[in-house]
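[User] I wish I could look at a protein chain and see how it folds. I have put the entry right below:
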Amino acid sequence: MDDDEIWAAIDDQYRRTADLLERLTSKEWQHPSLCDGWTVRHVAAHLTLQQQGVRDVVAFMARHPELLRARSLNQTIHVSAVIQARLPTEQIIGRVRAMIGSRRHNVFVTRLETLSDILVHGQDIAVPLGADLEMPVPATVLAATRLWETRDSWLGRVFHKLPLDGYTLRATDTEWTRGDGPEVAGSIGALLLLVTGRTARLDELAGDGADRLRGEHSPA
């Protein structure tokens, strides 16, 4: 995928996610997401913070000094999501929609992290609600590849890390294979969630490796 195709995929997923958010009831906004300790509302609010440059970050922290007390990157991200979740529902949805067509991304990361974020966080919202939020295969392959390649870098620290280095991950709906060891086979979407430490679709995966992972990790 070239740059134009990547940004088109990001826009498409922002649009799909905003459409889903508009259909949710007040109760569903408070439903637990796939992110431990986060509600659907927290995840949606987090998505509104995907285009922050240095000045935006400094201004946000100046308005919310409680962020300075966070002891880790994950805690900082969580506190910022809680702060944004105070916005009215319509404003959260509006801010997600407003990012469509922009080519901005957060400071210190790339457009590939923006793509990964909107794909994965969209599933964080959709899966626990039993909602269907399609992830186009080419974009999902690119995100899974990026996440696999950066899983041991600081970029991977924001995810719960599953011990996947001793397994072969193989997509059954496209040509994508990573790792070496007992096989974990399934859709690229289910594998994308697995690479980010999410076991919610583990039951969809097949192979000796998948059986072993199910024995060690309960779907969540």
In short: The mean pLDDT is 92. The CA atoms of residues 80 and 181 lie 39 Å apart.
